[in-house]
Amino acid sequence: MWQGLAGIALFLGLWQLGSALRLPMLRHVPTPLEVLVQLASAVQSSQYWLSWYVSGRRVFLGYAIGVGLGVPLGLAMGMSRTFHDTSFPVLEVLRPIPPLAWVPLSILFWPTMEQTIVSIIFLGAFFTVVLNVLGGVEAIDENYRRAALSMGARPWHLFWRIVLPATAPSIFTGMAVGMGLTWEIVVAAEMIASIQAGLGFLMWQAYVGGNIALIIVAMVSIGLAGLVSSSLIWLAGRRLTPWLRRT
Amino acid sequence: MLLGFASALGLWHLTTATLRLPMFEKIAPPLTVFREWFNRAPAFGVSLFTPVYYEHIGYSVYRAYTAFILAVALGVPIGLVMGWRRTVYRYTFPLLEMLRPIPPLAWVPLAILMLPGIEPPVIYVTFIAAFFATVLNTLLGVLSIDRSYFRAAECLGFSPRNVLLHVVVPGALPFIFTGLQIAMGLSWFALVAGEMIAGRRGLGYMIFDAYNMAQIPTIIMGMLTLGVLGYGSSALVRLLGRKLMAWRGL
Amino acid sequence: MNVGAGALSIRRVGKIYDPDAARVVALDDVSLEIPAGEVCVVVGPSGCGKTTLLNCIAGFDAVSTGEISIDDELLAAPGRRLAPGADRMVVFQAGALFPWKTVLWNITCGPVLSGRLARGEAEDRGRTLLARVGLAGIEPQYPGELSGGMKRRVEIIRALLNDPRVLLLDEPFRALDALTKSVMHEALLELYDLSPKTILFITHDLEEAIFLADRVAVMTTRPGRVKTIVTVDLPRPRDYRMLSTRRYGELKQEALEAIHEEALKAFAAGERELA
């Protein structure tokens, strides 16, 4: 573990040195110490934490809808061949369109800006979740299904007791990856769509106001937010799938 | 499959042209979009027949692929070394995990300040997105190689160079290519955002500009073009992977 | 490089694993003298440490106590471990043919890459051996295209082409069905008759052990020790018809008594395969 800290320390040291040497690239960039100072003041300001809340709320909403629609759709696609063949091509065409490319259209479509942002986040989470869930269903060992049927399971049983638990790991993987993605999206969406609050906005404000140290603080905060939320999902997933734990 | 496309298009047409649902009123119906797209003299100046369309495509493709190639050229070797040598891993992985969660787009302001001009920041942001995904997947690829292969190589007397060439790289290749597909997707994702924020030309910019000038069909054109390009790029990577890993069979 | 006939000497070898401070005594005072050119088969219940023993001889693991030497050269002792090499080639349980290389590359890479043989000569020798075991013509194929039995034969040939002093086989035919197994036995013995190497063969299949071996060493359950050695005096070259002779039955009975007791103990202890 200390080697990891050594690596990080080396990185920070080089940064500090680069600033001291006035390297051209780092001309406008503050030193690690200045960033720390800014961090200390940010942590004490209510506006900073408000930004967390505003961004977090958007993420949560868009994400929840994305998962709420994505999981059932992925399961349905995995279980019904016809449904899969109908919907998969459409999804595959829409999926490569970067979520942010949807921004202008969404602004025109949704009445409020909040809804626009949430819808973009939804798109990001949705596709990831659907893909992972679908993969999970398709990977279920056929023998589990056969074993259940030979024991007299009915379709409903089959779903709840076989398909759902077997897909659970994939569902959670999809959710965790989707969660990380949503933070990336919310930041970009906030920067592009002239929104008045949130971490992305905070960062853009800092840029416009020339407070570079605050930019870096915002960057790290966003990264942290993404990390924390996906870790929470990971943990929740592991708790809900105790049978996967290795002895 | 056709049914799916047909229904999607039908739904689009239904909501925008036939029923003119309230929220959909500003969105152009499919026929309008396609009429513009295939028009020799489009009303808004962009179609398959206008050079400016291909100029935008060219810029986006150039940026996306440049960043992607850079990410691969740096990311794969770094990932290989990190996966192969435990010591390197211990020093670098925590640092990597600290920098990785920072969304690529959060780098935009800093990139603008650190790098000169307009192109480098956009390419840098795209590069960052692809880079981390590549390193991670390469790293996982090396770690996924069965220990027995390394032991066999020991018995056979492979030098470190031979182990790298004949065990590490081929063994990690499947994971590397999964990572490359993801990285390609992320490149396009970051590129569009980068172009919207800081670009001047390129499909992301085209979409944003069209939005500012209320040229709705052009927006949709741009989106669909991005979809096609993104899908095609991933398919290219997949194809390349299949050629390089012929031993996997079908 | 491979001077010497390949006489293996295992003296009072012990191996202790320390995973999370729960000392696991895998091997305890194992002694075995294997003269050059002998086929020695080690049998024992799951978890008795036979794979651990093989790993120590091969150089993948270090010994905690005791010594291992080959032709009076020290291989392993506490604090000393000779790195794995072509003189102690291993055929792995789950198979370790490189899936991304052709059969020909797999079998010739050892001698060619280390400069011991010219490519042409290595390939010629390889082709001869492949033909010998009924695999003529598969050289350009990839392991993924081969059946289990074919892959095992290729892996044995890969080992042999490196001219080892000792050939170490770790339950190589475990995953094969009984019919394929008997084909494998004949293939292995065919190659052995061609150029007799010292062979250390690990298995849990008693019938396989007696059919192949000059001597069978029965190991106790964990901590592993050599419980008894059964000398197989069946004539060479071996023939599958010997399986129904009285002598075979007597030998099997002798070994069975020793191993059955250990098997029950192992089952009660809920042994799982280590490493």
Describe, in plain words, how this protein is organized in 3D.
The complex is a heterotrimer of chains A (247), B (250) and C (275). The relative contact order of chain A is 0.12. The longest helix of chain A has 38 residues, at 155-192. Chain A has a single domain (42-241), classed as Orthogonal Bundle (MetI-like fold), CATH 1.10.3720. The model of chain A has no long low-confidence stretch (mean pLDDT 82). By secondary structure, chain A is an all-alpha fold. Chain A has 10 helices and no strands. Chain A has helices at residues 2-20, 32-44, 46-79, 81-94, 103-109, 113-138, 142-150, 155-192, 199-208, 212-240. Chain B has 250 residues and is mainly α. Chain B has one domain (50-248): MetI-like fold, CATH 1.10.3720. In chain B, 77% of the residues lie in helices and 0% in strands. The longest helix of chain B has 39 residues, at 160-198. The model of chain B has no long low-confidence stretch (mean pLDDT 86). Chain C has 275 residues and is of the alpha/beta class. Chain C has a domain at 8-87 and 164-269: P-loop containing nucleotide triphosphate hydrolases (Rossmann fold, 3-Layer(aba) Sandwich). Chain C contains 7 helices and 11 strands. Chain C has helices at residues 50-58, 103-113, 119-132, 148-161, 178-194, 206-212, 246-269; strands at residues 8-17, 24-34, 39-43, 65-70, 73-77, 80-81, 88-91, 166-170, 198-203, 215-219, 226-231. The mean pLDDT of chain C is 89.
CATH architecture of the domain at 8-87 and 164-269 in chain C: 3-Layer(aba) Sandwich
CATH architecture of chain B: Orthogonal Bundle
CATH superfamily of chain B: MetI-like
Tell me the β content of chain C: 15-25%
Task: State the CATH topology of the domain at 8-87 and 164-269 in chain C.
Answer: Rossmann fold
Question: Quick check: average pLDDT of chain B?
Answer: 86
Instruction: State the CATH topology of chain B.
Output: MetI-like fold
Give the oligomeric state.
heterotrimer
Globular, elongated, flat, extended or rod-shaped: what is the shape of chain B?
A: elongated
Give the mean pLDDT of chain C.
89
